[in-house]
């Protein structure tokens, strides 16, 4: 994949990560459990992040190993293919703990690549 395409994908990933944080702002783990629309929206965002991560070039992934590209793709695959066994605690942890850190990293990678 060309670096230009990586820039587009990184921008998309940043956008989705920011959306997840905006959706979750002021919401609780209980809200996540009790509000199906909220839960499915966040699960979709994680799936989309994983799909976009799988489209990032090998060169960009290799030069930015601080980002868990493989974990993101694996998480996407679990959410899509093992949807009946989704662990809501893990999904909430990704939204609450992992994506804020990922967002900072993605912004830095995009800035460095410009």
Concise overview:
By secondary structure, the chain is an all-alpha fold. It is built from 6 helices and no strands.
Terminal CA distance reads 16 Å
Q: What is the residue-averaged pLDDT?
A: 93
Kindly name the structural category.
mainly alpha
Low-confidence stretches: none
Question: Strand count, sense and closure of the main sheet?
Answer: none
Query: What percent of residues are in strands?
Result: under 5%
How many domains would you count in the coordinates?
Answer: 1
Mind explaining what this structure looks like?
With 114 residues, the chain is mostly helical. It has one domain. The chain is 81% helix and 0% strand. It contains six helices and no strands. It has helices spanning 3-24, 29-34, 36-55, 58-62, 69-81, 88-113. The mean pLDDT is 93.
Keywords:
6 helices; mainly alpha; single chain; about 80% helix; about 110 residues
Show the helix and strand layout.
Layout: H1 3-24, H2 29-34, H3 36-55, H4 58-62, H5 69-81, H6 88-113
Helix pairs in contact: 1-3, 1-6, 3-5
């Amino acid at each position: 994949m060309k670096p230009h395409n990586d820039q587009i994908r990184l921008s998309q990933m940043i956008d989705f990560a920011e959306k997840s944080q905006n959706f979750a702002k002021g919401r609780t783990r209980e809200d996540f459990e009790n509000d199906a629309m909220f839960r499915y929206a966040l699960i979709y965002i994680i799936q989309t992040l994983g799909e976009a991560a799988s489209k990032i070039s090998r060169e960009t992934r290799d030069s930015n190993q601080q980002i868990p590209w493989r974990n993101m793709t694996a998480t996407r695959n679990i959410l899509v293919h093992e949807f009946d066994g989704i662990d809501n605690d893990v999904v909430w942890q990704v939204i609450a703990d992992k994506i804020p850190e990922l967002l900072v990293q993605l912004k830095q990678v995009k800035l460095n690549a410009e």
